[in-house]
Specification:
Layout (H helix, E strand, L loop, with lengths): L1 E5 L7 H10 L4 E7 L19 E3 L7 E5 L4 H12 L6 E8 L11 H11 L4 E6 L8 H16 L6 E6 L9 E4 L5 E14 L2 E14 L7 H6 L2 E7 L26
Parallel strand pairs: 1-2, 1-5, 2-4, 5-6, 6-7, 8-11
Antiparallel strand pairs: 3-4, 7-11, 9-10
């Protein structure tokens, strides 16, 4: 397969390099990624308002690799699919992210956004994350992804973007795969420090004291699966509509606040 790799940790991150190493012997690999760290960039894009330089990067065994200067993860995938890479891409893999992307993390994640950008373009896509911010050994995670992708591509009902989270344990200790949904709201205990510079200006900085997951949904949620030693597989789409609320909102259609006034 012709596989495009991107990420939000930057083209020099250990996770994307481990994925290159694992896939390069069996597939034709292309890499287009940000030149620097872009974590929590979400689905921000800049391609419609500014041009970007892209520099070639030498990665052993990779067909073609580019770093996009100042680009977001979604920018990188867009540029790759619509002109930078001349070959037709069969699959886009974003990651391996350094740290989990579970439940509401996905709203902020540049890793997930890169995969969703491919999904919007009609290309099969997987966002991959390793659930540790301290462990830097990605080889087992890369091997799991390598073995999984052929089965993923066989799925005839693949009308989703896949979010894969891999627990930070040895491969032989993992219990398998679990199909999951969001486990609840991931609350970061963030605090904002406000420092006054002068009467008209303050300096704002943010720090976190940890993460809490609220409304966990038993054994079927993504956070629960990771805690139990499973690889979490969550199907994503870009439909933000809360369909269960539509009928309850019908009373708004009876409002007359736009009626013609005398």
């Amino acid at each position: 397969m012709k596989i495009l790799l991107s990420n939000d940790d930057g083209i020099h991150a250990e996770g994307i390099r481990a994925l290159c190493e694992a896939l390069k012997d069996e597939h034709e690999i292309y890499v287009v990624a940000p030149d620097t760290q872009k974590s929590a960039a979400g689905h921000s894009v800049t391609y419609f308002r500014e041009a970007h330089d892209a520099n070639r990067v030498d990665i052993p065994g990779v067909k073609e690799a580019w770093e996009v200067v100042g680009g977001t993860p979604a920018d990188c995938v867009y540029f790759a699919l619509y002109g930078l890479i001349k070959e037709k891409i069969d699959l886009v893999i974003s990651g391996i992210n350094h740290g989990e992307n579970l439940s509401s993390d996905c709203m902020y994640s540049g890793t997930v956004a890169a995969a969703l950008e491919a999904y919007i373009a009609g290309v099969p896509a997987i966002a991959t994350s390793y659930c540790s911010y301290t462990e830097k050994t990605f080889e087992d995670a890369a091997e799991i992804i390598k073995d999984f992708i052929c089965e993923f591509m066989k799925d005839e009902n693949r009308n989703y973007c896949l979010n894969m989270n891999i627990p930070a344990i040895k491969k032989e200790e993992m219990k398998g795969f679990r199909i999951t949904h969001f486990d609840g709201e991931r609350i970061y205990a963030n605090k904002v420090q406000v420092n006054e510079i002068n009467d008209q200006t303050v300096n704002l900085s943010c720090f976190t004291n940890g993460i809490e997951t609220r409304d966990m949904k038993g054994d079927t949620g993504d956070v629960s699966a990771i805690h139990q030693g499973y690889v979490s597989l969550t199907p994503l789409a870009y439909d933000f509509v809360k369909h269960s609320a539509i009928e309850d909102m019908k009373h708004f259609e009876q409002l007359s606040i736009m009626k013609e006034r005398d």
